[in-house]
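Entry 14. Structure prediction run on the chain below.
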Amino acid sequence: MGYQLHVHVNGDEGLEVVLGVLERRMAENPRANHRTVIVHFANSTEEQIACIARLGAIVSANPYYTVGFADKYGEVGLGPQRADAMVRSGSVVKRHVPLSFHSDLPMGPSAPLYLAWCAVRSRRCPRTTHRRP
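Output returned:
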C-alpha cells in the first residue's frame, strides 16, 4: 500500500477526530514513517500537538491565518486569545514535528517569503500592526 495521506482540517474538534482515526489505524496496522500530513492546521491544542508528534504525523500549516484572519475570528467565533494562537508553528517545531508552510491560494498570498514573515512575526506583533512588508 504505502500511501501518504494529506488530511485538510481546521479547528481543534476536527483535528481531534483526525487524530483519533489516525491513532486507531496505527494501532490496527502499525506503519513506520507513514508521513500522514495534517494540512491547514488552524486551531489546535498543545495536547493535540503532542499527539501529532507521538503518532509521527507531519504538519503543513498556513501561517497567513494568524495575520490575515485573526482579527475577524477574534471578534466573532474564536475570541482574541484563541485567534492569536490559530497556527501553533512554534509548538510544532519544539516537538520536532516536521513542518512546512503553504498559502492555500486564494486563502493566502502565493508569496513564500511573506508567508515565512507571517510565521515569524505573527506571535510578536500586535495584530493591528500586521502589514505586508
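The two ends are 45 Å apart (CA to CA).
Filed with the rest of this week's runs.
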